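Suppose a colleague, Dr. K., hands you the sequence of a protein chain of 264 amino acids and asks what its three-dimensional shape might be. Before reaching for any lab equipment, you can write down a predicted structure in token form. Begin with the sequence itself:
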Amino acid sequence: MTTAANLLTDNPELYEARFPDPDRLAGRWTEDCLRRYGAGPRVLDLGCGTGRDAAHLHAAGRRVTGADLSEAMLAHARVHHPGPAYVRADLHGFDLGRGAFDAVVCLDSALLYCHTNDQLDGFLTSCRQALAPGGLLVAEMRNGAYFLGRTDLLDAPKVNSFTWRGTEYRSTTTLTVDRTAQLLRRVRVWTADDGSPPVQQRSAWRLLFPQELRYVLAAHGFEVLDLHDGPGPRTEPAWREGRLPGMTTDADRLHVVARLTTPH
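The predicted structure, expressed as tokens, is then:
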């Protein structure tokens, strides 16, 4: 068995086949948040991946910069989802211009790759520098509070399969909670019916809790405008136009909209 840093990140077309979003649900949800809170046109999509959401926001009339650490993802985005400017940046600390953006968007648990407090501080300090006064931070992620007393996502490996270009890919994913590090660790084993050897990849997300998130955002000069567990682009049922946020933070996804009130 070989080990890969991230099979899907290294293969953007495979990523889009595994996580199709033909209706651009994540992009539409994000645009709805930006409109509802009056965000200006300049948007940074941090952890933009293949560029689908950045391109949707661009098509909605915004001036979008997509940033990611993966050169493969950025190359794919420039070709397949043109419109935004795409740049390489590390969410743990970046400098893309002081006050250069009216909103920073961080979807699909990208924020949770800040595993340590120093990394989280680096992310929020960079966001604070990048945002104009009154700018928005919009993030969507797993909810650490969901794992307080619940084990349904941990009890058994999750198996998924899909076919891409005539090859069937099968993944077996095991999640464990590292309470000391406050991380949700994932081991995923990929197999394919083309005769290639199995590939194992390991990753982890920070388990942030709602009140912890409120506290750290306030410490970095942000006022939380919305913090809820749905509906959102990855909830069941999923968000649709006209659905307003709920009032709870109990389910497995967490959505936050915060406004910068104290510029750097």
